[in-house]
Each structure stands twice: as C-alpha cells, then as structure tokens.
Amino acid sequence: MVIKSAEYLISSPSWEKCPNPIWPEYAFIGRSNVGKSSLINILANNEKLAKTSGTPGKTQLINHFTINDSWYLVDLPGYGFAKRSLSQRKQWERMIEDYLRKRPNLMTVFVLIDSRHQPQKIDIDFINQLGEWNIPFSLVFTKADKSTQAEVSKNVKTFLNKMRETWQFLPPNFVTSTVKKTGRDAILGYIEELNMQFRAIA
Ligand code: GTP
Ligand code: MG
C-alpha cells in the first residue's frame, strides 16, 4: 500500500470522544516503551507523526491518525509502566477496556512484543484478556535489530509455543525493526486486506 497522506487527528481521553467510526481502524498496544509510536511513524512514513521517547509512559491518551483519508491508525498508552499509581492504572484499564470493546470499526489490535525477551507474563495475560473479550489481534515482535536473527526467531517460536498451551489458533504475526524498516510492507499489506473487508461489509 502506498501512503499518500498521514495526519494527526485527535487525542481522546475515552472511547466516547473518539472520532466518528466511519473508517476501518487499527490500534497499537503493548508494554510501555516497546515501540508502538515508532512503528506507527514507520508505517505512516513520517518520523514526527506520533511522539516517541526513550522514557516509558510517553503516550497517555487515545491518539487517532488519519491515513490516506480512508482509515485510522491509533496509538495507545502502554501497559506495565511502573511509575503509574494504582488509581492511574485503574483509569488506564477502564479507558483501554472500553475502547477495545466498544469501538465498532476496530479491525484488529496489533499487540507489540519486545523480540529480545522470553515470553513475559504481562503480555500473555493481556493477550488472554483480549481472547476473553473476543477482540481480534495480531502480534508484532519489535526491535528485531537489537539481537541476532537467530535469537529473534527463537523468541518468536517460544512465544507462539507458549500461546499454543491455551489457544487453538494462532494470530498473524510480524517481526519489525524501525531502524531497518523491517516488517512495514507485511503489516501494510495486511491492513489493506482488512480495509477491503471493511468496505465489503460497510
Ligand atoms: P510509550 O508511549 O511510552 O508506551 O512507548 P512506545 O511503545 O510508544 O515506544 P516508543 O515508540 O516511544 O519507543 C521507545 C524507544 O524505543 C525509543 O527510544 C525508540 O527509538 C526505541 N525503538 C522503538 N522501536 C525500535 C526498533 O525497532 N529498534 C530500535 N533499535 N529501537 C527502537
Ligand atoms: Mg508511545
């Protein structure tokens, strides 16, 4: 897919405030600092679109970006950010649960996993929660440039095997590096397919 335009639209504190759900939408979630905003910028071909930072907890609201005047990318605040208070964490949970369960045009959620690590409980728990809520998702293993290809493949395989313990079907998965721009075409191709499905049912 060719990206002709990518524009910041709005930041919302709750699903009710999100823009009209007239276009298909793709949200990016995962542990704080895993690379959600950076990946959005690579996909959109604009390094300054979503705010990125080496300090975890940069993204706080539900951020909508309009792509090609026909679909939305959504940058979400990450989970597992240690410096949040209990009440902030509860607020995050409410905002995210409502958004994920109530947004009618959400085609898939991309769950980002750091490819450098063994499966982490926090990611597995989040994924199982998505399953309970019946929300379609895909996996994106990020920061692939930070370890060897063999290490990345091993971690992906271990993660998928861990999922097989409880899941009958595995979701689509992608490996990305924003430094090397790996995975961009595969993710955009998948989004394009889902955009066509949205149009077929709309
Ligand atoms: P929060 O908004 O705080 O939840 O973080 P985030 O998931 O949006 O992460 P962000 O995109 O801000 O990236 C966090 C840090 O990781 C930044 O310093 C990025 O430059 C770096 N980073 C993200 N993706 C990659 C990657 O593929 N390779 C490398 N080497 N660094 C990356
Ligand atoms: Mg971010």
Provide a compact summary of the structure.
The protein is of the alpha/beta class and 202 residues long.
Walkthrough of the structure:
The longest helix has 18 residues, at 184-201. This protein has a single domain (6-201), classed as Rossmann fold. The chain has a seven-stranded mixed sheet, sandwiched between helices. The chain has five helices and seven strands; from the N terminus they run E-E-H-E-E-H-E-H-E-H-E-H. The model has no long low-confidence stretch (mean pLDDT 94). The protein is α/β, with parallel strands linked by helices and 202 residues long. Residues 36-37, 58-59, 75 line the site of magnesium ion. The site of magnesium ion has 5 residues, from helix 1.
The biggest sheet amounts to:
7 strands, mixed
Strand content: 15-25%
SSE string: EEHEEHEHEHEH
Question: Looking at CATH, which topology would you report?
Answer: Rossmann fold
N-end to C-end Cα span = 21 Å
Could you estimate the helical fraction of the residues in percent? Answer: 25-40%
Q: What is the topology, as strand order, of the major beta sheet?
A: 1-3-4-2-5-6-7
Radius of gyration: 16 Å
- Backbone shape: globular
CATH-derived architecture: 3-Layer(aba) Sandwich
Say which molecules are bound, naming each kind only once. Answer: guanosine-5'-triphosphate, magnesium ion
Query: Total number of helical segments?
Result: 5
> Would you tell me the structural class of the helices and strands?
alpha/beta
Give the integer mean of the pLDDT values. Answer: 94
What's the level 1 CATH class? Answer: Alpha Beta
Uncertain spans: none
CATH fourth-tier homologous superfamily: P-loop containing nucleotide triphosphate hydrolases
Number of domains: 1
- The total strand number stands at 7
